[in-house]
């Protein structure tokens, strides 16, 4: 029942937003009582926290499985992480949108717990970039922290526009992203100076 409450919460929070969804809306759609809801969750905010936690913990688990492969170089690991994020749009789009859009409704220990897990994913990605720089696979003149935020921003925003059943397959989106990250978009090899 707890999983069904979470799934219904995801559906309604994605459709209507956290603030516009009531506990009554959730239990009514499921055909259960508020008592059932409060048996599993102390509040609507705790439900939101559990949805966030479930989403980010699964991403970290998948990311760490990719990072464990010692035979895989940093470029391939980066590709696999980006592919994992883009391919999860097919199954996790509502959770991803809730994760980015509704986090502002969490407070106290709830927000601290989610930010801690989110930081694990970011730090894992940054360490991969730093390792790629050390090994000479990535340019040494770039800041790993800013590159990491750019990669995560680009991939996370894809949950808002990318249609896995559209004309561009997810593999092509990942290929374009990785090519842009590794090679840039300039047609020539000139180094541009902005100052």
Structural description of this entry:
It contains nine helices and no strands. It has two domains: 1-41, Arc Repressor Mutant, subunit A (Orthogonal Bundle), CATH 1.10.10.60; 45-183, Tetracycline Repressor, domain 2 (Orthogonal Bundle), CATH 1.10.357.10. The mean pLDDT is 91. 24% of the residues are buried. The longest helix has 27 residues, at 108-134. Helix content is 72%, strand content 0%.
CATH topology of the largest domain: Tetracycline Repressor, domain 2
CATH superfamily of the largest domain: Tetracycline Repressor, domain 2
Helix content: over 70%
Approximate strand percentage: under 5%
- Give, in order, the helices and strands: HHHHHHHHH
Task: Please give the alpha-carbon distance between the first and last residues.
Answer: 59 Å
CATH C-level name of the largest domain: Mainly Alpha
The count of domains is 2
The count of strands amounts to 0
Just name the CATH architecture of the largest domain: Orthogonal Bundle
Shape label: elongated
Instruction: Give the mean pLDDT.
Output: 91
The number of helical elements comes to 9
Low-pLDDT segments, ≥5 res:
none
Major sheet characteristics: none
State Rg: 19 Å
């Amino acid at each position: 029942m707890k999983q069904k409450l979470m799934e219904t919460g995801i559906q309604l929070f994605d459709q209507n937003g956290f603030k516009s969804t009531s506990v009554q809306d959730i239990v009514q759609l499921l055909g259960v009582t508020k008592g059932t809801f409060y048996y599993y969750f102390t509040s609507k905010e705790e439900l939101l926290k559990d949805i966030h936690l479930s989403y980010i913990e699964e991403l970290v688990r998948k990311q760490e499985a990719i990072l464990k492969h010692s035979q895989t170089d940093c470029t391939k690991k980066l590709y696999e992480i980006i592919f994992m994020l883009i391919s999860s749009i097919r199954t996790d789009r509502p959770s991803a949108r809730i994760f980015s859009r509704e986090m502002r409704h969490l407070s106290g220990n709830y927000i601290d717990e989610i930010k801690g897990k989110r930081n694990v994913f970011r730090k894992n990605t940054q360490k991969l970039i730093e390792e790629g720089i050390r090994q000479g696979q990535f340019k040494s003149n770039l800041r790993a922290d800013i590159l990491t935020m750019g990669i995560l921003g680009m991939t996370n925003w894809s949950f808002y526009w990318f249609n896995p059943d559209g004309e561009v397959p997810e593999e092509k989106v990942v290929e374009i992203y990785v090519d842009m990250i590794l090679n840039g978009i300039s047609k020539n090899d000139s180094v541009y100076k902005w100052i």
